[in-house]
Amino acid sequence: MRNLHRASMTAVAALLTCGCGQADDASRTASSAARVEAIASTLQACSYDGKTLQADGSALTGGAPRDCASAVTRIMGYTGLPANFVVVSGPVPNAAAVILLDDKRVPRRVIAFNPEFMQAAEAQVGGSVWGPISIMAHEIAHHLSGHTIVPGGSRPEIELEADKFSGYVLQKMGAPLADAQRMILTVGSNHGSPTHPAKDRRAASIRQGWAEARAQSGGLDCRSGNALAASTRIASGSTGAAVTPAGPTPPSAVTPPVANASVPARTLPTPGSIPFKYGRFIVDETGRLDPARVRTMEQRLYGLAKNAGVEMSILVVNDLKGLSANDYAWAMMRQLRVGKLDVGNGAVAVVAPRQRQAAVAFGPGLAKEAEFSDPNKQLLQWIDAAWPNCEDADGCAGWTDTLFSPFNGTLFWAERSTWTIEYRSLSALLDHYDAVDAERRRTKRSLNPQTDLPNGKLVRVAGRITSLRSPTGFGQANARLLSGKLGYTAVSMTTDDGHDLVLYVAPRLAPLMPSGALKNGARYTAVGRLHSTGDKASKQASTMWLFSYDEI
Question: Which one of 154, 168, 321, 405 is CB 3.0 to 4.6 Å from 213, fit for a cystine?
């Protein structure tokens, strides 16, 4: 992402939202105008209030003004995660979260904004500094959560998730509830649309995030002192340099759970019990784990998020609140959007030693890295062997490292996997590796499995579901995979570029997706890892591990 050359970007899609972001010095280097590629499609975006807009992706070449960059720096300080986006500016009415192709045609997350964004947003809410901050937090949530960006717009569910994040962050920064809601109540629509909910629902979601942040801080009023003063200085642009956040800093920052509106409130643990996707990767309610060893693991998990984009939360709880450990872990996965939604590279581990329960919820992408391990069994063994020692005066001590050891293999492979979607169609992927194979044969060099084979590569496809039943027979779904412990099913798709494709679907995938369960005959964009290549001549389908999808 740091090597993004904006002048050679091609706009491919835009999320129907607004926002701003922090600039990267390397991203400011523009290529020659002669290298600018043709626009692949009109940048279809929508403002924060849901109104449609269009912009020319080749014009999004400016850098972020310092007031905007400083404000985003502060917001990111409350997330405890590195930014997974870069910032450009240009002639958009306000701002938009978009995906652009770089000069190597690799999609990158970008937030594009109007240079006058800060002042214009403040003016809309009577000069309140919290107006533009609320929009920025909303847009940052979309990118950190890995919301899939597709032509045609957003989804009400993910807009509510981003609104809740905004309310949570603004409370931590010192904003009163009324100021956190003011922007959406000013510019939002009274009526919902297929992409954006009505403003009263969005304001309610902001209120939920704000209230959870307040409860986690013990109900303290954070609207005074340095927090508000620093936020005001940054948001108003009175300082010319990026300001170190006054709030918590990585990896111990405290920021919000981003809840899926479809999860009933009664399944939520108490706010203080939630493992923070943004910031604190490990929460120990028991107080028995060794703090130094926890810090070492937190640093590793933060590094994993920074370097690979993979996120994992580990929660050691006193009480499962009436849920099983498995249901608790999946509720957290849905609410926190641990990992990036589009590539499914997150996990939530829940250990309840006093109730002798443990479980791990793996996103479908990370589940592939963990398919040969059995952490649930190992965590139960830890409870039986280690927990009696943890209850004495010295606590868990070295047993803390033993708790984390079941994840070493998964984290090892996750660190070495690629989590960038490099191919925008199955044809693009297959054509590339056909060319690689031809070059290898021409030069008579030996096969390198790491660079010469298409299997395991991330790809985004678009097409229509033709059957929800697992296709069997020659060249179709692998029966051994469908009968394995991971519980996969398979569906058939015909891609827009004419390929027959079998998608392996994890059993817990549908509840994570904003568009719900797959429907026969519907069109989707889908992201996954290629499992095997097919052959059109023999009607042998290609197969892919499905990580996410959005209905078109």
Answer: 168
CATH 2.40.50.140-classified regions of the chain: 426-551
Classify each residue of 142-172 as buried b or exposed e, where b means 16 or more C-beta atoms within 10 Å of its C-beta.
bbbbbbbbbeebbbbbbbbbbbbbbbbbbbb
Neighbours of 223 (CB within 10 A): 14
Percent with pLDDT over 90 in the chain: 29
Determine the 3-state secondary structure of 467 from DSSP. strand
| pLDDT at residue number 438 | 92
d(CA 76, CA 24): 14
**Among 189, 172, 165, 130, which Cα is nearest to 259's?**
165
- Residue 15: name the closest of 94, 95, 93, 96 by CA: 96
Q: What is the CATH number of domain 265-416?
A: 3.10.310.50
| Confidence band of 218 (pLDDT split at 50, 70, 90) | low
Question: SS3 breakdown of the chain: % helix, strand, coil, rounded to 5?
Answer: 40, 20, 40
pLDDT at 59 (0 to 100): 66
Q: Helix 156-173 to helix 199-216 angle, to the nearest 10 degrees?
A: 40
**Using only C-alpha atoms, what is the Rg of the chain?**
23
Q: Which helix (H) or strand (E) holds 110?
A: strand 107-113
Question: Which architecture, in CATH terms, is 426-551?
Answer: Beta Barrel (2.40)
Cα–Cα distance measured from residue 503 to residue 523, given in angstroms and rounded to the nearest whole number: 14
For all residues of the chain together, what is the average pLDDT?
Answer: 75
Considering the entire predicted model, what is its pTM? 0.69
The single residue listed with the structure tokens 């990896």 is 251
Q: What is the pLDDT of residues 498-526, one digit of tens each?
A: 999 999 999 889 988 878 899 999 999 89
For 329, list phi and psi in degrees, rounded to 5: -65, -40
